[in-house]
């Protein structure tokens, strides 16, 4: 009876020792064996592994990518602006042996390096770089963290700056700057539009001056566009015929000026009467015989000086009334009639 009890106890201890020597390593872990405090070179892979009882101790190292938020760091940029920046770091264990031996707590070590590197990046950068050039800053920050972490068997996948907090005064200044920039662009665009519109109007006016009928067509087109709206009444104070009259008067003004200049040059040669035939024949024009259509055109379109010169020339060309009467009563032989 005593022997059975002793065998039962021995079997129980054997089973307990065997069970305590068995370990399970998960797929996302790697096992580092310490035998009597000395690390073994062999790294236990995922699955069931057997340890020497009372001699081996296994430490599991997770090889998954760790997402570590970097606490918000406050610093002053190179252009003397106080900012608060936070980031996030992604890393994984590349060498489990070094991660278990070289550093006591690799997660805490990477966190501290990330904080100091982030402060260094803030001091070396300007505010515009923190706001717009984040990709380059992320690469520089990852390189700064990866340099010491590589000796710990840690690989930094990526580091990203999450948020940049600015003071309220700086936010208001930046908003005013952005508003002023938008206003400047708007004014430049409006001025450019006005310039192009003026150029097009100048081209259109040149074309219309060459073809006077285009102005009338444009007027009729405007009338049609205004008449399309039912809630408006169109009143034409000037008829189209009056515009045509002004157009003809403007065309006749240069011709009248040229004729006036020619008549002003020939006027001294025709001062005296050359004979009864010339006086009675009606070849010499008088003020009463001037065409009725030419006078309004000259008075309205020609300059005042041209009209004055033409009137003086005509008065010189007309024979005075007393001289004309004497020439009619005179005898053909030169003796006056009694």
SSE layout and pairings?
Elements: H1 2-20, E1 22-25, E2 29-35, E3 38-44, E4 47-50, E5 56-62, E6 66-76, E7 82-93, H2 96-101, H3 106-124, H4 127-132, H5 134-149, E8 154-165, H6 168-210, H7 213-227, H8 240-266, H9 276-281, H10 294-301, H11 304-317, H12 321-329
Antiparallel strand pairs: 1-4, 2-3, 2-5, 6-7, 7-8
Explain this structure.
This protein is an alpha+beta fold and 338 residues long. The chain is built from 12 helices and 8 strands. Strands 3-2-5 form a 3-stranded antiparallel beta sheet. Strands 6-7-8 form a 3-stranded antiparallel beta sheet. The protein has a two-stranded antiparallel ribbon with strand order 1-4. Strand 6 and strand 7 form a beta hairpin. Helix 3 packs across helix 5. The termini are far apart. The relative contact order is 0.06.
List keywords for this structure.
12 helices; 56% helix; three-stranded antiparallel sheet; alpha+beta; single chain; 338 residues; disordered C terminus; rod-shaped
What's a concise summary of this model?
With 338 residues, this protein is of the alpha+beta class. It has 12 helices and 8 strands.
What average pLDDT do the residues reach?
A: 76
Which radius of gyration do the C-alpha atoms yield? 56 Å
What share of the residues does DSSP label as strand, in percent? 15-25%
Topology as a string of helices (H) and strands (E): HEEEEEEEHHHHEHHHHHHH
Q: How many beta-strand runs?
A: 8
Count of helical stretches: 12
Specify the biggest β-sheet.
3 strands, antiparallel
Shape: rod-shaped
């Amino acid at each position: 009876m005593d022997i059975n009890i002793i065998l039962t106890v021995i079997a129980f201890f054997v089973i307990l020792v065997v069970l305590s020597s068995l370990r399970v390593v998960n797929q996302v872990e790697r096992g580092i064996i310490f035998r009597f405090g000395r690390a073994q070179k062999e790294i236990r892979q995922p699955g069931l592994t057997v340890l020497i009882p009372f001699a081996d101790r296994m430490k599991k190292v997770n090889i998954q990518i760790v997402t570590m938020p970097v606490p918000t760091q406050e610093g002053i940029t190179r252009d003397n602006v106080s900012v608060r920046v936070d980031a996030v770091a992604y890393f994984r264990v590349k060498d489990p042996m070094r991660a278990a031996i070289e550093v006591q707590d690799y997660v805490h070590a990477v966190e501290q390096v990330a904080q100091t590197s982030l402060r260094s990046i803030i001091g070396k950068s300007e505010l515009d770089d923190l706001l717009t050039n984040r990709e380059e800053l992320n690469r520089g920050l990852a390189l700064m963290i990866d340099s010491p972490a590589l000796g710990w068997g840690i690989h930094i996948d990526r580091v990203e700056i999450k948020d940049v907090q600015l003071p309220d005064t700086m936010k208001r200044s930046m908003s005013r700057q952005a508003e002023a920039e938008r206003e400047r662009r708007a004014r430049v665009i409006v001025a450019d539009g006005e310039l192009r519109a003026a150029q097009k109007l100048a081209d259109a006016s040149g074309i219309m001056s060459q073809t006077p009928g285009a102005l009338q067509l444009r007027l009729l087109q405007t009338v049609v566009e205004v008449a399309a709206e039912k809630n408006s009444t169109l009143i034409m104070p000037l008829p189209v015929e009056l515009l045509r009259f002004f157009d003809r008067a403007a065309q006749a003004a240069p011709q009248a000026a040229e004729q006036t200049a020619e008549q002003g040059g020939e006027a001294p040669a025709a001062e005296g009467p050359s004979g009864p035939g010339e006086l009675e024949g009606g070849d010499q024009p008088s003020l009463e015989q001037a065409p009725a259509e030419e006078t309004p055109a000259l008075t309205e379109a020609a300059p005042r000086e041209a009209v004055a010169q033409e009137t003086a020339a005509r008065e010189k060309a007309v024979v005075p009334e007393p001289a004309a009467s004497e020439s009619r009563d005179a005898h053909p032989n030169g003796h006056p009639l009694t």
